[in-house]
Amino acid sequence: MTHRLAIYDMDRTVTFSGTYTGFLIHVARAMAPWRLVLLPCVILLMLAYVLKLITRQRLKELNQTLMVGYNVERARLMPHVESYADKVIATNVRRGALAQIAQDRADGYRLVLATASYRLYVEPIARRLGFDAVIATDHLSQDLRYVRAKIAGENCYDTGKLRMIKAWMAAQAIDRGQAHIRAYSDHVSDAPMLEYADLPFAANPHRRLALLAAARGWPRVDWE
Q: Which uninterrupted H or E stretch holds 160?
């Protein structure tokens, strides 16, 4: 095969816990501590999402508006994004994931982090972990002076994540027939990505993914 790809989900796959809420709190505490009083509103928005009153994409946009601001100057924000990445690496990365990342690199695989989290803070984390590429949710103003609480295109989640992986591969001139793909995820929402892989791994799986993996014969790994 011409191309070897190892595609990792991030939250609860490479990390122990989710990173998005921690990111919001970290930035709010650093830039505008008064916003922490709005945390109960974040919980209410989560409830609205569970009740299907708002979409997952809209939930993320509203939470960022509350905790970070709708329109934030990138130069002010980025030092706190970088310090958050340091915090994630220091306290929220599974040792087993680090070992597998190192093994995939040694085996000649190109390391790709594919996550629903925002590229804004995923790229600094990926850089510290030694990933070669990031596929993630983008802000509408990804390359502009200000970061807006608005998603550009799709939320990188479920079937949307697979579409974004395929689009990235096309942009990299990687033909699926000439690629061997390893994929790792903890959550059943990544079933489309795992189905697409040659060697899918249920990594620290939730119950639904564990059941699916057992039914499909996918290997299970549990990383500390």
A: helix 159-171
